[in-house]
Specification:
- It is a single chain.
- By secondary structure, the chain is an alpha/beta fold.
- It has helices at 27-41, 67-77, 89-92, 96-108, 125-158, 182-198, 201-211, 233-241, 266-284, 325-328, 343-357, 360-368, 371-381, 432-449, 456-463, 467-476, 481-489, 498-503, 510-517; strands at 7-15, 47-49, 54-57, 83-86, 112-115, 120-121, 171-174, 177-180, 217-219, 225-227, 248-251, 254-257, 298-300, 306-313, 317-324, 340-342, 382-387, 391-396, 403-406, 408-412, 415-419.
- The longest helix has 34 residues, at 125-158.
- The two termini are 36 Å apart.
């Protein structure tokens, strides 16, 4: 019986070298014949070959700069192709990263992908499972690349090289090296000396604000002007503890001799360090009572500190927030675009970025530390966190470029929650009840598939649950593999909860599932 639905099939062929292309029958022809035969064998499924030939002769599979491939992707976006057929997967690309990008385009436009010699066909559930396995390898390749970059940065820092980021006050960057800016260097030494005179960073900040002293202003490679703002307490603490001024380079707690010239004498640095340590012990003790991770680090987008606050509701429950100092003092007009946020929401975003920046051992140490030590470890890495309505910006103590994380906001129960889009960095929110339910659902499914029970009613009896509950659980075992993986890794939409999945009718079609569940 012939399928009434027509699937328009495009064949893509590629050969790396131009050798042999002049022959009457070459590798491209051989690939096309095999693909045409496969398409013909699927005529009963409604497959029909389109006339356009997508042939890249003499082009490497290591990149996407191929004319026929570009035309193929354009035609996919125009909606004229339903299935892409290749002889082997490596004819499409040899890069797993590029493969993930191409397949993302296929999924967006609901195009299937078939490799005729490798039993790879995303029109079937097994083909889609194979696709997810390959995409996992692509993720592995990206992580290995990230490790190589971090290793390169570590090696360069050990040689005292400047690796980019915000240039510190007192230096200019020329040809990727720090050069002393004499006028700013005098300003830096004056800040160190003034701190010794006043004995307080708070008083120092107030004095510099009165005198109109600003942070370093500089222009990025994209001609964007940064800096030039009032030196707040957090910025001053960073200046007073920055070992760059001693002519040193610091990477992950290790100190190396830098390529640049020192601008603060060692004796002046030593006296400032001693006073800072004394003041820290005097005012904060061992900080065992610190309950808010971002104390002293979080600012609104108008430069005001966001102060830890809390409210107590029924049954003595305590809810933590960060509130702009302007709002706390009653000056609503001074507060930033987002003047209050729930503490766990912003702390989760910051810790998600921190996990990407730290090594596995450093992250383990941070995760296992108590409140006081966790705060200290965070201060060694993060210099400042700025919160706006549409993004969170992290600036680092080390010479790393600031990270900007796009966010959107949700109001729940009167509280402002932060949601990071899936396209951004992987800030995870593990939902233990949902993950546990997934595990139970798969156990129930395996019992049915192995023939251990004959029906759902018997499965409910053996499991000690009601038929209704077993039926609700079984729905979870038929979620798309990428949805299941996202839930296990904590990358699901923030509003996706177990109760929500129980209430709704989950489609069997995976693409429909993604749309229904917000993926």
């Amino acid at each position: 019986m012939t399928n009434s639905v027509t699937l328009r099939c495009a064949i893509y062929t590629r050969k790396s070298s131009e050798e042999g292309l002049e022959q009457a029958f070459n590798s491209l022809h051989a690939q096309r014949e095999a693909c045409e035969a496969y398409v013909k064998s699927q005529q009963h499924e409604g497959w029909k070959l389109i006339k356009t030939a997508y042939d890249d002769g003499g082009f490497s599979g290591g990149n996407l700069e191929r004319p026929a491939l570009k035309q193929l992707l354009l035609d996919i976006r125009s909606g004229t192709i339903d299935v892409v057929v290749v002889y082997k997967v490596d004819r499409l690309t040899r890069s797993l990263t590029d493969f993930a990008r191409i397949v993302e385009t296929f999924e967006t436009y609901q195009v299937s992908f078939v490799s005729v010699t490798q039993a790879f066909n995303t029109t079937s559930s097994m083909g889609r499972l194979t696709l997810n396995v390959l995409l996992s390898f692509a993720q592995f390749e990206r992580e290995v690349t990230g490790e190589r970059i971090r290793d390169k940065i570590a090696a360069s820092r050990s040689k005292g090289m400047w690796m980019g980021g915000y240039p510190p006050l007192g230096y200019d960057v020329r040809e990727r090296k720090l050069e002393v800016n004499e006028s700013e260097a005098r300003q830096v030494r004056a800040i160190f000396e003034r701190y010794l005179e006043l004995g307080s960073v708070r008083l120092l900040a107030e004095a510099l604000k009165t005198e109109g002293v600003k942070s370093k202003q500089w222009t990025t490679a994209k001609d964007s002007v940064r800096g030039g703002s009032t030196l707040c307490r957090g910025a001053l603490y960073t200046i007073l503890q920055n070992r760059v001024y001693l002519g040193e380079s610091v990477h992950k707690g290790k100190v190396y001799a830098g390529e640049h010239e020192a601008i603060v004498p060692k004796d002046l640095w030593g006296r400032v360090e001693t006073l800072l340590t004394t003041q820290r012990r005097k005012h904060h003790g061992n900080r065992q009572g610190i309950g808010s991770l971002l104390t002293g680090l979080l600012f609104d987008d108008r430069g005001h500190p966001m102060i830890p606050t809390h409210t107590s509701k029924g049954k003595g429950r305590r809810y933590r927030y960060y509130t702009s100092r302007g709002l706390v003092r009653g000056h609503h007009e001074d507060a930033g675009s987002l003047h209050r946020v729930t503490a766990p929401a912003i702390e989760e975003v910051v810790q998600g970025v921190l996990k990407e920046q730290l090594s596995a051992a450093e992250w383990a140490a941070f995760s296992q530390a108590d409140g006081a030590n966790r705060w200290k470890l965070l201060r060694r890495t993060v210099r400042r966190v700025t919160l706006a309505r549409d993004q969170v910006t992290l600036e680092f103590v080390q010479d790393l470029d600031p990270i900007e994380i796009p966010i959107c906001l949700k109001i729940r129960g009167g509280d402002t929650l932060i949601v990071t889009p899936r396209a951004g960095r992987d800030h995870r929110r593990l939902n233990a009840p949902l993950i546990k339910a997934l595990g139970r659902a798969w156990n129930l499914r395996r019992s049915l598939e192995r023939g251990a029970v004959d029906c759902v009613a018997e499965l409910a009896r053996v499991s000690g649950c009601s038929i209704r509950h077993v039926t609700r659980l079984l729905k979870l075992a038929y979620l798309a593999p990428d949805i299941t993986e996202a839930i296990i890794e904590g990358r699901q939409p923030v509003e996706l909860a177990l109760a929500h999945l129980y209430r709704i009718d989950i489609p069997l079609d995976w693409q429909a599932q993604r749309q229904t569940l917000g993926f």
